[in-house]
Write a structure and sequence with these properties.
By secondary structure, the protein is α+β, with helices and mostly antiparallel strands. It contains five helices and six strands. The protein has two domains: 115 residues, no CATH class; 96 residues, no CATH class. The protein has a six-stranded antiparallel sheet with strand order 1-2-6-5-4-3, covered by helices on one side. Strand 3 and strand 4 form a beta hairpin.
């Protein structure tokens, strides 16, 4: 059911535009833009690329798609005049209502993210960028049973060049500093998990090992 709802959420603007389009030129152009917009939430969900603006893309997608449909409708009105009230009028009115409701869902998602930022979360592996020569040997995976105030994810980092744990940790700290990680409480490094809507903070602890380093990613809750 969740998969069906997800694809419906992504493909709904294209389906509505198919009911609204009246000209081939504008219809194809708007459909192409909508398809490009749809790639963003799908790609983020499937891990094709990583972005800190996941919350913004998920909640902003219906708003952006609705705006594109509106601009396409106005362009066709300028080319063809007002839409006929008979024949295709009822499907067009229904599609317009659905697009408006879809945009409203985006606003609701934005509000829900504001509520979710106070809950513990499982950090993503993609938040950790490794320097050349270091790789992940073992990943504990997402924390499915978070503690009371935090979720944890452990990654074993090793060197292909046989570096010591101290040297591997040093190189990793240099890379993390370049990526915007800053010192936090208890000797950890921190950075914003998301962007504007998602203000959760990821914590990172480095534990030196004889043959590498253990990276502990922590997604703590936030006290309101």
């Amino acid at each position: 059911m969740g998969l069906v709802l997800g694809w419906g959420y992504v493909l709904l603007p294209l389906a509505c535009w198919a009911a609204l389009a009246r000209t081939r030129a504008v219809g194809v152009a708007v459909a192409a833009v909508l398809a490009a917009l749809a790639v963003v939430p799908v790609g983020l969900e499937r891990g094709w690329f990583h972005s800190r603006a996941i919350a913004e893309s998920q909640s902003g997608y219906p708003l952006a798609a609705g705006l594109v449909v509106l601009l396409g409708t106005l362009a066709e009105r300028r080319l063809c005049g007002p839409r006929p009230t008979r024949g295709s009028g009822q499907p067009a009115a229904g599609a317009t209502i659905v697009i408006a409701a879809h945009s409203l869902v985006g606003l609701v998602l934005g509000l829900l993210y504001q509520l979710a930022v106070h809950e513990p979360f499982s950090p993503e592996r993609s938040e950790l960028s490794l320097p050349p020569g270091l790789s992940v040997r073992q990943d504990s995976g997402p924390d499915r049973s978070c503690g009371l105030h935090a979720c944890r994810r452990d990654l074993a980092i090793v060197s292909a060049d046989g570096l010591s744990g101290a040297e591997a940790a040093r190189r990793l700290r240099v890379r993390l500093a370049a990526d915007g990680w800053t010192p936090g409480p208890g000797g950890c490094l921190v950075h914003r998990h998301g962007w504007l809507l998602d203000k959760r903070i990821t914590q990172l602890f480095l534990i030196e090992q004889p043959d590498g380093v253990t990276v502990r990613l922590v997604g703590p809750d936030r006290t309101p």
